[in-house]
Amino acid sequence: MRLTDISHARDVMRRHNINPQKRYGQNFLTNPRIVDAIADACASDECGIIEIGPGIGTLTEALCERYKKVVAIEIDRALLPVLDETLGRFDNVEIICGDAMNIDFNELVKEHFGGMKVCVCANLPYYITSPIIMKLLEYGTLLESITVMIQKEVADRLCASAGSAMCGAITLAVNYRAAVEKVITVAPGNFLPPPKVSSTVIKMTMLKEPPVACGDAEKMFEIIKLAFGQRRKTLSNALSSVYGKSDVERALDTLGLQTDIRGEKLGIREFAALSDLL
Length: 278
Ligand code: SAM
Prior knowledge:
two-stranded antiparallel sheet, alpha/beta, 9 strands, 278 residues, 12 helices, 7-stranded mixed beta sheet, binds S-adenosylmethionine
C-alpha cells in the first residue's frame, strides 16, 4: 500500500506518534497522480536522486521505484523510525539526518553517487525555499536538474520573463544558471495537512554554460541586487551610491538604453553588459 493512501499514512503517523510540525513545513502529499508526475519529471533513468525532506516517505517511495539510487536528507529526527518502516523494502535508499542548508552537496555527491548524474527532487518546506534554491544553483553543473515543489507565487516569480512585474533578482539568478519550466500546479487539498496556498512544481535544468558572457558574475549580481532592492527608483539612482549616477547613465547610453530606465526592465544580457561597462 502506498503512502498516498490517506488511511495508510494516518495509520503510520498514529503508530509512530507523529504530528506534522509547522516549524519544519511538514505538509505531506496525498495524491498519487501528483507524486507520480513529480517523480517522472525530475530525472532520466540513469540518474541518482537527492531528495530534500522525505517526510514519511511519500515521494521517496515513488523515486525509489524509478531510480537507481536515492539519498534523502531529513531534518526531523522523529521521522527516522517512520522512514525505516515505510522505505524498508527498498535497498536503493539512504537517509541522512540533517539540515539540507548545512550539507556540502559536493561531498555528498562524491561519497554517495560515484560518477552518476545526480538530480535533486523535493517537496520543499516553504521556510527554506529561496535560500536552498540559491544554494543549489551555486553548485552549477554538479547537479543535472533541480525539481522542487514551492509556493505558486514564488514559482511565478522564478519563471517570470525579464521586464515583467513578477521578475526579481532571484529570477535572474535562476536564468543565469538554469532553464526553468513549470511541471504542475497543486491545490492545497492534495496535502496532509493542507497548506494555506497553492503550490507549483518547477524543474530547473542546469545550463552547461551561462547564457551570457560576463567578466565578473559576482559584480553583476551585486548590481542586480541593488537594482531590484529599490525597484521604484530609476536604475541610475539605484546604482548611484556605488557607481556614480553619471557613469551609470553613460553606460546605459552606450548600451542604447534610456538613461531613466528602471532596473526591472533589464534582462540578464543587459545586466551582464552593464556590469562589464561599469
Ligand atoms: N517529501 C514529503 C512529501 O512530499 O510528502 C514531505 C515534504 S514536507 C513539505 C517537507 C519536509 O522537509 C518535511 O519532512 C520536513 O521535516 C523536512 N525539512 C524541513 N526543513 C528541512 C531542512 N532544513 N533540511 C532537510 N529537511 C527539512
